[in-house]
Structure formats: structure tokens, C-alpha cells
Design a protein that fits this description.
Length: 711
């Protein structure tokens, strides 16, 4: 909690405090301010846990009479009021990074369209990295004071709750979100009426209403087709993240892109920039075209207008990952809409084709976005090179290096990912304002200075966080096997004294979760070493239609049942932001094994630095730029193989060699005080080199400088 110069809590009545606590519950600012979250947790630890940490759910079940009574505790009263003061100061601050550096943006908002937003575990409207990136983007936009509106869909059934069968196969459950228990509210107009709009899908007019999420100073708007006046199949469209078949996908993307522009117009927001986070929202360019044509511009003039107001971020380094639709589907779902544009289906198909004359080429959402954006970017330097080569045919007059796809490497919202213990640790040593200096490289240089935090203090932090992770996993295991496991059995599930490796992410095949098992006998030896053992915690979900990814999960779960690995290699079910928070804080080493160059960026490994964890990864995505030989370890080299089997063997051998000869010896090489000095030296370099550079503050500021310039 920051030191507020002028506290105001003596002026607040208990009724005002209660009202403000309720208001704060609906603003996700509390999700990156642990002391604010702790207030809600203290009110009811049980409701807090059963609601997946929702402040709204807690306050719904606590009476005003109880809240008033709790405020009779002077310490609690003081802490609540200081949090409310800090929140008030944050929300009213006019001297932000944006006002200081780009004041012209203040009255020219950015509209950021993303098919998913990963904001907090109580809002399961995300599937993976794309959504988490969008959530971190929104939080940094708030911290930097950028006028920002996120646009997405309200998936009332969320992504899915992962269940694992006895034979290790993933099954999906879709429990409906209780809207009353999560921090979202209906989007209303100035008169208090629900805001609605509609989109044309096929021959139908589909009505949409919307919800609003407050994220500090910014908002995310979620479109929802679940209205009684819509036909049932249209009501279900916004039910699940990436749900259904290709027909469902195109209809969801019509709602996101076209409906997103319309809902902004309905509330009087006229963005200066429309930012497409991946191609899912690219139909927004057609709506902008339609608006300008209806205003009397020629088609060429309208096209130029759209290009001046759109930017596009691509995240996908493989051809198969880009949404493509056949002409018949475009005609079925968009023909009536296109009449307003006075364009034929053939005319529209050209916007989505690399070769406009090829009648067999499918309509590609990425091509549409590239053609209508003034700036297009990849999400790491290596990904930019891959993307330039992938889309070279769209720019036949230039060389590969001149293809206009720049790179802005991803980052993470460090205050949001730092867990409570990490915040407490750095608050004591740096002061509460360290979260405001994330981008200051000179500030983070001080971490080579032992006066900031001694080796002993850093090692104590690592042991605290490792213990927290292991106890979380043990409790998770106990809940999962309630009738089959006793408390004493938990002593055999992991050890707080052992080098702990974390691997958690979407179980796509190219991420190669089972790679470490390729040298099976050597892994058995490392896990069961008497003096220098290792343990590994896996977690992650496979896409419901990705059977290969599910087989990877099954394979790892079967390994965990091997007596030689039992209790030492664990799979944690139902990966979400909460599970991720424990894993990235408690793991000593974060393992990342994508098959180069298929990881566009990745961000999970960026989150460990603030906790004193270290990254071990193939040289793919962001790690190619970040690795300096001293701030973690690299698997393999920068070579890409044409033969996947050959590449996997080379990387597996490299991984085992690094673990055996570098990682494990350095972790267990202790001095007479029991401190691994060389390990902690590597932690210091990791903190100093990674935190300011791989921050979403830096990322968002770079978008402002390179992409959001007004014309």
C-alpha cells in the first residue's frame, strides 16, 4: 500500500465506505493491488475461494450490517480507507505517462479488438496466451493513462473446465458463469437504459446487448447475442470461446468486428485507431468502409480512410493458424450486409485473397487485416522475420526484408503477475512506488547491488514461494483425490527442498510438453538423485478439438503414475490464471520447449523474473532477444531443422545436457551458509535485464510511439 500524502478516511462515513468497497469490487484495479484483494479475501475466505477470488461474489453474500461491524476494527478500518484513498488517487490522476508524452491521444481513444481477454481467474473468458496478452495490454493502458476501449465477446460458458479421466484423457465441462458473481455490469446509456445494436448475419438481423468491465481507468466491452428476440442458434453464438465449427467462427467474427464498431458508435465513442489483435476482428474494416461509403466517399477514398485508422497485430507463425473461409460461406453470411456496401461477393473476396484473381483461394482474415492497416506488426523480432516470409506474396514488389511487418515484442503486466509475497518483498526494499518504475532501466540496474536485497533475503524469498507452490499443489491433489488420499500421503507429493521445474501453457503439439521424457532413463536418474534431485510440475489445456494435444496430456499423466516418478512429476488439472500465478512464482526454473520458430513470442517465462525464477528455453519467440548467457539458459541454438524428429532429438539432448551440467549443479552448489551464490547472481541479472524490457508497459508505450500516431 502506498503512502498517501493526504488521507481522507476521517471524512468518510461507514455507509460511504461500504458503497465505495462495492464500487471498487467492480473495478479490476484490485487484481493488481494485492492489499486491496486481501481486504475482500479477509471478509470471507470461503466465498473468496469458492468464487475463484471474486470480490463481487464476496460482497454479494455479506450484509451491510456485517460490513459495518467489521469496520469497527480500527486496523481493518484504517487499511480499507487507505486502499480507497489509493484507488481514488489512481483514478483521478491527470498527470499520467500519456498526458506527459502524448497529450494528443487524450481525446482520441484507441479501440482494441480481441477475441479474448484474460483478466482474472474469476472471469474465464479467455483460452490462452492471446487473451492474457490482451488483458495485460488493458492493464498497462490503464496505468499509462491511455484512452482505451477493449472489444470482445461475453462467453457466458467461458472456455472450459478441464476434467481428466482415469486413463488420462481430457474432457471438457462448460459451467455457466453466474453474471451476478463476477465484476461485469450491463452497458447502459446516459439514461440508464441497456445499450443495444445489431448485425446482419445471412438473412437475419441479430440483436446484441453488451457488458462492461472496468479495468482501472479503461473499459472492456463484451458483446452478447443471448437475447430472447434472437433465434436460439444466434443466442448461442457468443456462448463459448472459439466454440463450434467454421460457420460458428465466421458468425462470432462478424459480431466481434462489425458489432464491435456499432456498439462503440452506440455509446458515442469515435476511436482514432482501431487495433486488431489477431485477425478475428478484421471484419471491422468492412464496417468502417460501409460507414464512409454511406457518407458519400468513393470506394477508393473509403479504403484510404480505413487504412489510416487501423493497425493489426499478427500472432500466428503457421499458415494453418489463420482463419480462412470459402466463398460460399462468405456469400451465405455476408451477402445481405454487402448490399449496403454496394459490393459483390467477388469484390469482397479480393480483400481477403493474396492473389485476387485466384477464384479458388479462400478468404483469409489476416490478409484482410494486412490490406487495411497502416501498420502491421509481429510480436517478436524472430516472428517478424517468419511473418515477412509468410506474407511475401502479398507484397510482390519488395524484398522479404522490406515486407511492411514490423515487430513489437510482447510483455507482461508485472504488478498483476507478482504475487502477494513478491509485492511484500519488493515494497519493503524498494518502496511502494516500484510498480510505477517498471520501464526505468536505470532503476532496475540497482539489482546487481546487494544492498537492495541480500543473497540471503533473495534465497529466503525463493524458499517461501516454492513452499507456497508445493502446498498449493498438495491441496489441489488432496481435493482431487479426497476419498483416496490421507493428509500424511501428501508428504510424498513434491518436496519444498528440491529444484522445482514448471511447465504450464496450452498443450499445442509444437510446444512439445513431453520433450524432457525423450531421454527417459536419464530423467529417471535426475528425478531420483539422492543429493541433487529435481521435480517437475506440468499444467495446461489442449483445445477441445486437438486430439494430438490431448494425447500429450495423457502421455504426461501416465508418466506421473510411473512409480519412479510418482510424487515427483505432477500434472495440475484445470490450468487457469490462478494456477499460473502459483507456478510462475514458485518454480525455480521455467521450462519452455517450442519447436523453433513456431512460438510467435510467448510471455509465461517473462512472469517469473519478479519472483526470482529463471528461464530455460529454446531460442524461439522473445527468448532469442532476451537471453544474454547469464540471465537463464538456452536449449539448443538458433538452428531450425527441416526434419522435426531430428530437431526434437537435438533439443532433447541439449536440454538434458544443460540440466545435468549447468542448472542442477548451480542450484545445489551451496556455501557454508547454505546459499547458492552463483544461482542468485543469475537471478539478479535476470531481474535487472528482463523486468523493464519485457513489460507490457514498454510494449504498450511502443505501440503508442510506432502505431498510434494521429494523421
Amino acid at each position: 500500500m502506498k503512502n498517501i500524502d493526504k488521507t481522507k478516511f476521517n471524512d468518510r462515513t461507514n455507509l460511504q465506505i461500504i458503497d465505495q468497497l462495492k464500487s471498487l469490487a467492480y473495478n479490476l484495479w484490485w487484481t493488481w493491488n494485492p492489499e486491496a484483494a486481501l481486504i475482500y479475501k479477509e471478509l470471507s475466505p470461503l466465498i473468496w475461494e469458492t468464487s475463484n477470488h471474486s470480490a463481487v461474489a464476496v460482497l454479494r453474500r455479506i450484509s451491510d450490517a456485517e460490513l459495518k461491524a467489521r469496520l469497527g476494527d480500527p486496523d481493518f478500518f484504517k487499511r480499507v480507507n487507505k486502499i480507497l484513498d489509493e484507488y481514488s488517487e489512481y483514478m483521478s490522476c491527470s498527470n499520467t505517462w500519456c498526458t506527459q508524452n502524448f497529450p494528443e491521444l487524450i481525446n482520441n481513444p484507441i479501440a482494441y479488438f480481441s477475441a479474448e481477454f484474460g483478466l482474472h481467474e474469476c472471469l474465464p473468458i479467455y483460452s490462452g496466451g492471446l487473451g492474457v496478452l490482451a488483458g495485460d495490454f488493458a492493464k498497462s493502458a490503464s496505468d499509462l493513462g491511455i484512452p482505451f476501449y477493449g472489444i470482445s465477446l461475453y462467453y457466458r460458458l467461458g472456455y472450459f473446465k478441464q476434467k481428466i479421466s482415469d486413463d488420462g484423457w481430457q474432457f471438457e465441462e462448460y459451467p455457466q458463469i453466474n453474471t451476478d458473481d463476477v465484476p461485469i455490469q450491463p452497458l447502459i446509456d446516459q439514461n440508464g437504459n441497456p445499450v443495444q445494436t445489431s448485425v446482419t448475419i445471412g438473412h437475419s438481423n441479430v440483436k446484441l446487448h453488451a457488458w462492461k468491465i472496468n479495468i482501472g481507468r479503461v473499459n472492456v466491452i463484451l458483446l452478447d447475442s443471448n437475447l430472447p428476440e434472437n433465434e436460439l442458434h444466434f443466442r448461442e453464438l457468443t456462448g463459448r470461446v472459439y466454440g463450434g465449427d467454421i460457420s460458428t467462427r465466421i458468425m462470432q467474427e462478424i459480431i466481434l468486428g462489425i458489432g464491435g464498431v456499432k456498439i462503440l458508435r452506440a455509446i458515442g465513442i469515435n476511436p482514432a485507431i482501431f487495433h486488431m489483435n489477431e485477425g478475428h476482428s478484421a471484419f471491422l474494416t468492412l464496417e468502417l468502409l460501409r460507414e464512409q461509403v454511406n457518407k458519400g466517399l468513393t470506394l477508393n477514398q473509403a479504403e484510404e480512410y480505413v487504412k489510416k485508422h487501423c493497425i493489426f497485430t499478427t500472432h500466428t507463425p503457421v499458415e494453418a493458424g489463420h482463419d480462412r473461409f470459402p466463398k460460399s460461406l462468405i456469400e451465405l453470411q455476408l451477402s445481405n450486409y454487402l448490399k449496403e456496401l454496394k459490393l459483390s461477393v467477388d469484390d469482397i473476396m479480393k480483400y481477403g485473397r493474396v492473389n485476387e484473381q485466384d477464384q479458388n483461394e479462400l478468404f483469409c482474415m489476416t490478409v484482410l487485416a494486412l490490406k487495411f492497416s497502416k501498420v502491421s506488426n509481429a510480436v517478436s523480432k524472430l516472428h517478424s522475420q517468419v511473418s515477412k516470409a509468410m506474407w511475401k506474396n502479398l507484397y510482390p514488389k519488395v524484398s522479404v526484408n522490406e515486407v511492411p511487418i514490423i515487430h513489437i515484442t510482447n510483455g507482461v503486466h508485472t504488478p498483476g503477475w507478482a504475487n502477494v509475497k513478491a509485492h511484500e518483498f519488493w515494497n519493503k526494499r524498494l518502496g511502494y512506488d516500484w510498480t510505477e518504475k517498471i520501464m526505468d532501466k536505470e532503476y532496475w540496474e540497482k539489482f546487481t547491488n546487494h544492498e537492495i536485497a541480500s543473497d540471503e533475503e533473495l534465497w529466503a524469498l525463493r524458499n517461501i514461494l516454492r513452499r507456497e507452490l508445493i502446498e498449493f499443489v498438495r491441496m489441489h491433489y488432496l481435493n482431487l483425490h479426497l476419498n483416496r488420499v490421507s493428509i500424511s500421503d501428501l508428504d510424498n507429493i513434491l518436496s519444498p527442498d528440491v529444484l522445482t521445474i514448471g511447465f504450464a501453457r496450452r498443450f499445442a503439439v509444437y510446444k512439445r510438453a513431453p520433450l524432457i521424457f525423450k531421454n527417459f532413463e536419464k530423467l529417471v536418474e535426475l528425478v531420483n538423485s539422492k543429493s541433487t534431485p529435481i521435480q517437475i510440475i506440468f499444467s495446461g489445456k489442449a483445445h477441445p478439438r486437438d486430439d494430438e494435444g490431448k494425447r500429450y496430456i495423457q502421455k504426461i499423466i501416465n508418466y506421473t503414475k510411473d512409480p519412479r516418478f510418482y510424487g515427483k512429476i505432477i500434472f495440475v488439472e484445470n490450468y487457469d490464471i490462478n494456477v499460473a500465478r502459483y507456478l510462475i512464482s514458485g518454480s525455480d526454473v521455467w521450462l519452455n520447449t517450442p519447436r523453433r520458430p513456431l512460438e510467435a513470442s510467448g510471455t509465461s517465462g517473462m512472469k517469473i523474473a519478479i519472483h526470482g525464477g529463471l528461464h530455460l528455453s529454446t531460442l524461439d519467440g522473445w527468448w532469442v532477444e532476451a537471453y544474454n548467457g547469464k540471465n537463464g539458459w538456452s536449449i539448443g541454438n538458433e538452428q531450425s531443422y527441416s526434419n522435426e524428429e531430428e530437431q526434437d532429438k537435438a533439443d532433447a539432448d541439449s536440454l538434458m545436457n544443460i540440466l545435468t551440467n549447468e542448472v542442477i549443479p548451480q542450484f545445489y552448489n551451496r556455501d557454508t551458509m547454505g546459499i547458492p551464490r552463483e544461482w542468485i547472481k543469475r537471478i539478479r541479472i535476470s531481474i535487472q535485464s528482463l523486468i523493464p524490457e519485457y513489460s507490457s508497459h514498454r510494449m504498450v508505450s511502443e505501440y503508442v510511439k510506432k502505431c498510434y500516431k494521429l494523421e
